[in-house]
Specification:
Number of helices: 11
Number of strands: 15
Helix content: 25-40%
CATH class of the largest domain: Alpha Beta
Distance between the termini: 37 Å
Structural class: alpha/beta
Radius of gyration: 21 Å
Bound molecules: pyridoxal-5'-phosphate
CATH topology of the largest domain: Aspartate Aminotransferase, domain 2
Number of domains: 2
Strand order of the largest sheet: 4-10-9-8-7-5-6
Length: 390
């Protein structure tokens, strides 16, 4: 029956996942895997968390969905909780949506209607979801800045017109900077702070806007509440998804005061499940779990333990991989190329561990649940070590 559905994955490997618990997924025969990818990086608090499951069950039993002219108290409570942790400033507003793609689309669409200059700027290796302009990024409106050469830039070299590379950015035509502060669907790269800050400063000083795509980097994935908190910037709009629903499809488009104040009223955007009480209740429960269980700090600790452990694995001489990480968002570029990545990925799967493999590349990705235990990290590392020895 799997043949009746088109799956986006390059290969359907596990066909009979029937249940999950925390970081584990189980097949029909009771075999289990530790999911170090958190599904598509979404199961931030692990799966079937009792508090989230109860919120979902209770809210569905009370009211799941309302018409546009009605609402339930839980929707306002969820908005207040999100805006409190985002802290975009007095006058910020948000809308609850259903996917990360939609949240990015909403933010980009709203900001595009207010641009003081016609172009939108983003960084190479970014992903903005499945929809609309932000997905296609037509060259007549978008500039994609290739910043890879900036990674080794000397600390004392300024990001200004004196830098040949920086001078290629058409800032005079740019009305918005759309930033993914860590390329999750790409190669897990983190743009340098001075570059991001210089662009954001120039764009906002000229009356433009900074939109941050936190769909993957948000709610603790990078060791801080949001990926943009690694930069000295204050965004004007933030898209949240994935981890904020813990696996349930709820997302948020948050507009900071500079954007909200320019709108005469709610943006012209409507879909049937916008601001649904059910998504609001799940979101509220997930945020509550993250705060009450200290998962921002725990995610940072999990990531640090994984990063240190991966670096210390018995890599064959001359085959130490390139690794990148920020909090619980990690990538390992295997020296043996895509063929080795497929072998290691499959061996880990056989050993009971799910990690991400970027198809056709040598890059393995790890985005584990934020509350993973030390013992689980260590058994994974021991299995990985065994694979390298054989
Ligand atoms: C950075 C980023 N933005 C947007 C999206 C789209 O989110 P969704 O697949 O929930 O629509 C993704 C999904 O992988 C993502 O990683």
């Amino acid at each position: 029956m799997d043949d009746l559905i088109w799956y986006p994955g390059h290969e359907l490997i596990l066909r009979s996942i029937v249940r999950a618990e925390g970081p584990w997924v189980f097949d029909a025969a009771g075999r289990r895997w530790l999911d170090l990818e958190s599904g598509v990086w979404a199961a931030s608090v692990g799966q079937t968390h009792p508090r989230v499951a109860a919120a979902l069950r209770d809210q569905f039993a009370a009211i799941a969905h309302t018409g546009f002219n009605y609402t339930a108290p839980v929707v306002g409570e969820a908005a207040a909780a999100v805006l409190r942790v985002l802290d975009l400033g007095e006058g910020a507003r948000c809308t609850l949506l259903c996917s990360g793609s939609e949240a990015v689309e909403y933010c980009v669409r709203v900001v595009s209607g207010l641009l003081p200059r016609p172009r939108l700027l983003t960084m190479a290796d970014s992903y903005f979801g499945a929809y609309g302009a932000a997905h296609g990024r037509p060259a007549d409106r978008w500039t994609t800045f290739d910043w890879f050469g900036c990674e080794g830039c000397p600390a004392d070299k300024p990001c200004d017109a004196t830098c040949e590379r920086f001078a290629t950015i058409p800032l005079a035509e740019t009305g918005a900077f759309v930033l993914e502060p860590g390329s999750s669907s790409g190669f897990v790269r983190f743009p340098p702070a001075k570059l991001v800050e210089a662009i954001a400063q120039a764009v906002q000083a000229a009356g433009g806007f900074v939109v941050v795509n936190e769909v993957t980097t948000g709610v603790g994935r990078t060791g801080r509440w949001f990926g943009y908190r690694h930069y000295g910037i204050v965004p004007d709009a933030v898209a949240l998804g994935k981890g904020i629903g813990g696996g349930y499809p709820v997302a948020v488009a948050a507009l900071g005061p500079r954007v909200a104040a320019r709108l005469a009223g709610p943006p012209a955007y409507a879909q049937s499940h916008q601001n649904d009480p059910l998504g609001a209740a799940v979101l509220l429960a997930v945020l509550g779990v993250i705060e009450d269980e200290g998962l921002i700090a725990r995610g940072a600790a999990v990531g640090a333990r994984l990063a240190a452990g991966l670096a210390a694995l018995p890599w064959p001489a001359g085959e130490v991989p390139a690794m990148r990480s920020r909090g619980a968002m990690l990538a390992v570029d295997l020296a043996g190329g895509p063929a080795q990545a497929v072998r290691v990925h499959r061996a880990l799967l056989d050993g009971g561990y799910i990690v991400g493999l970027r198809p056709g590349t040598a890059t393995l990705r790890l985005d584990p649940p934020l509350g993973l235990g030390d013992e689980q990290v260590d058994t994974f590392l021991a299995t990985f070590s065994g694979i390298l020895r054989t």
